Amino acid sequence: MATPTLNLALKSLWNRRVTALLTISAIAVSVALLLGVQKMRTAARESFANTVSGVDLIVGARSGPLNLLLYSVFRVGDATANVSWSSYQKIAKHPDVAWTIPISLGDSHRGFRVMGTNGSYFEHYRFGGTHELRFATGGPFHDLYDAVLGADVARTLGYKLGDSIIVAHGVGNVSFAEHKDKPFRVAGILASTGTPVDRTVHVSLEAITAIHIDWQTGMQAPAGFRVSAADARLRDLTPDSITAFLVGMRSRVMTFTMQRAINDYRQEPLLAILPGVTLSQLWDLVGIADIALMIVAAFVVLAGLLGMLTAILTSLNERRREMAILRSVGARPRHVFTLLMAEAGLLAALGVLAGVCLTYLLLLAGQPVLEKRFGIFVGVTGLSEYDLAILGAIVLAGLLMGLLPAFRAYRNTLSDGLQIRV
Amino acid sequence: MTDPAIDIEAAEFAWKDQELLLAIPRFTVARGERVFLKGPSGSGKSTLLGLIGGVLTPRSGTVRLIGTGLSGLDASGRDRFRAEHLGFIFQMFNLIPYLTVRENVLLPLQFSSARRQRVANVEPGREALRLLDALGLAGNGLLERPVTQLSIGQQQRVAAARALIGRPDIVIADEPTSALDTDTRDGFLELLINECQAGGTTLLFVSHDSSLSTHFDRSIAMSEINRTPSRAN
Known about the structure:
By secondary structure, chain A is an alpha+beta fold. Chain A folds into two domains: 2-48 and 287-416, no CATH class; 57-273, no CATH class. Chain A is built from 14 helices and 17 strands. Chain A has helices spanning 2-15, 17-49, 65-72, 85-92, 119-124, 151-157, 205-211, 229-232, 255-263, 275-286, 288-318, 320-328, 333-374, 385-416; strands at residues 57-61, 83-84, 97-109, 112-117, 126-127, 131-132, 135-138, 146-149, 164-165, 168-169, 184-190, 200-204, 215-216, 219-220, 241-242, 244-249, 270-273. In chain A, strands 1, 3, 4, 7, 8, 9, 10, 11, 12, 16 and 17 form an eleven-stranded mixed beta sheet that branches. In chain A, strands 2-15 form a two-stranded antiparallel ribbon. In chain A, helix 1 packs across helix 13 and helix 13 packs antiparallel against helix 14 (385-416). The longest helix of chain B is centred in the C-terminal third of the chain and has 18 residues, at 182-199. A five-stranded parallel beta sheet of chain B has the order 6-7-8-3-9, sandwiched between helices. Helix content of chain B is 36%, strand content 21%. Chain B is globular. Chain B has one domain: Rossmann fold, CATH 3.40.50. In chain B, helix 3 (101-111) packs parallel to helix 6 (152-164) and helix 6 (152-164) packs parallel to helix 7 (182-199). In chain B, 46% of the residues are buried. In chain B, strand 1 (6-13) and strand 2 form a beta hairpin. Chain A binds chain B through residues 1, 4, 8, 11-12, 14-15, 321-322, 325-335, 417-420, 422, and chain B through 46, 49-50, 53, 55-56, 75-76, 79-80, 82-84, 88, 90-91, 93-99, 103, 107-108, 110-112, 162.
């Protein structure tokens, strides 16, 4: 007897198709929101966890792991101390170390951090799993006063190749002390990565030394003692210290040994962290926002289902006649019960189905924008088991809500019998 | 086959502790008989139809339909019995608005395998058409038309076809003609009675309009069978 009732439920819904369609749309939109948040959440988490990849250790002066991660990878906050050049050299030359990327921070350009590094950065830095840094235009720095811009820097400030930029001393948004005498030339612009790289101005380590060559305790030397841009080229520009460095090991197995060795390093208080571990610690902090989003989305779904409940309940009174007719042709009260359950189930299931379609439609449409603008790659992948469980739960919740009108109709049916109440 | 179609004996009905609505010492309708039951509203006829339909149970006494005591069945048993053996036609708005003529007529077959069996040798749609035709309703694409496009007279014919499909033993018609004009009414009544006669179906026709009684084998007033103290007159 399930088929006739399901068939009746379908036809009855079709008869009230405007209301049904609105109900389904409400559920669909809420489901799309929930799925969208869920997909974005996964994508954001992945993108976050992949801010830096392929790096085995991050080494800086001893402070906290989060602090080190924040300034070395996210360009947030400042280092409390530096790493001496000699310690860096010693570790970089260790036989187990495959490569290192030195990082020297402290200056800025119109709110964007300036980072001193070397060619190894463009060669070894990875993000989002295995993505290498790509140049949108130009290439790495060759000349001392060459700069390579992250995608956001170039877009926000409207720079193109060959433009001249002046680096400010310190990291404030507005800085009065500028390295005006040693302007840089834009030699390359990186493609968007969706990581803090986009918001970074890259120069060589030597350039960082050069622009600070005549600075002492945060002040440029008085006029007569200054070193010109051309003269600076002739000096030894090997830095005394760097802010931090990224380490790639020859073999992953050696990572922990190396980490311990660095943390126990006698000559200088150093800290080595595993980026993956610290990234996930950091996510636990910032990830609360996405739980809040999830909760909001869940409530929107609840609102959608409550809309359905309202629609079915209000239809009940005008359908008492329908129920009495069904009874007179032999429908049992339980048929009436299942009819309404089927209706709720159908509305919820169709709503979920439409919601899934809507989600994918939006994903397909929004994917290029998301990737380009925010560097978040949202894969148009199938539904995960978790997604399916959520969708199943929504249909189940819809069915549970259907119990209420079903039970009321059941009771009406018993009391009305074959009498047609108008 | 000697059991009467309807046999009510010493049946009393009242809602819980309220006054007696119905007290029937004896009421029988023979098989194949077509009985006109005259009753104004408030005479207890809705209660009587509820008892025969098995949606109400008497406080005492028995209701036997074609030899089966309804009190011996549970609620779902009575539902099944109704689905198999009874057909109903009501005053108006008899049809499910969102179903076509065909779907409305065939509805009882979905709830009763016995009635489905009885028309198993013909295509159900054809049987529906035959009944509609016998009841004076014909036309191109009639079966697939939405019932909301039909006039009230046409709707009552669809309802009658639905009550008759699968040859139930008893058809109960509750004021089916009160919404019809005189010409339509007489035509409808004649065709309904003919079709019941052809199928050997028992017909219990309830109406307040005694001018219709001439069409029937027997005519009886509600007041003759209902002996509640307050209503006895």
